[in-house]
Amino acid sequence: MQRRAQRDGQFDQREQRDERARRAGGLNRLLAATVAVPVMLIAAGCSSDSGSDSGSGSGDPTQGAAAAGSTDSASSAAPTVQAAAYKTLPEACAVVSKKTLTELVPKGANAGKKGTSGDTGERASCSWSSLANNGVKGSQFRWLNVSLLRFESDPTTGDGESQAKTYYAKQVKDAQAVAGAKNTKATPAAGTGDEATLVRYDLKKAEGAFRQQTVVARVENVVVTLDYNGAGLAGDKTPTADTLTKAAEKAAKEAVATVRSANGAGGGGSSDSGSDPAPSASPSSPAKTKPSASSSAAPSTAPSASASEAAAAAPKASASAKS
Fold this sequence. Notes:
By secondary structure, this protein is an alpha+beta fold. It has five helices and seven strands; from the N terminus they run ααβββαββββαα. The protein folds into two domains: 77 residues; 222 residues, no CATH class. Helix 2 packs antiparallel against helix 4. The radius of gyration is 46 Å and the shape is elongated. It starts with a helix and ends in a 10-residue tail after the last helix. This is DUF3558 domain-containing protein. It comes from Streptomyces humidus.
């Protein structure tokens, strides 16, 4: 009986161990399954994110590059300047009416000499000379020159109007610094362009006493420089400064009006002109920002015996100052 009881006890112990082992195995499987589910979910999420990133990565570099290129292009674009108001110049020998020319240079109204220029849409000039012989009383000499200079807007040098203002100031200063000039006087020339200055002075030469009048006017991006001088030669009376000033101012106003007309900004010439100055049809081109060298030489000291010689002797102010 005792051995039977021992066997039964041993059997019960084995049954308990087996039961515990089965329970432990089931619990382990349950735990393993519980852990496997989140791992699978995480793996699936990573796979999905990886696919999304991969997809976006294949498109974003192009879009990013395009956006960067657009930004770089905008930042590297050249600076813009205001466009020049006037795009062309009129024919220089037609900026003053025939009637006014007859008054200023009576013996040379029909003999205007056009200056040389590589581009008449950028710069132009014309001059006239007159020698009226009064016999034993002497002769009266007159010389007129009109110079036109147009400035084009440029990102490097600035807008055309600002360049014209700078050149205008330089021309006025140069007109007051002529060697040997006496009684120099500068006054505003009212009603002539956007701004204008009249400079006048006396210059004594071997041929006689010359009286010089220079009108510098600016209209938008164009500078007009008009030189007019006169002298009584071989004993003739010297013309008065006031008479020459009035004539020079009249011619300058006509020249400015003609520049405006050539660019569709008002009538050209004065109302009492004998013939309307005709604008030039030459197309405009980018202007050089610096004026050319003087188109007129220093006055000669040789005696005047003809109109051409008198013209050489006259104290011709520079039509365009040296840059």
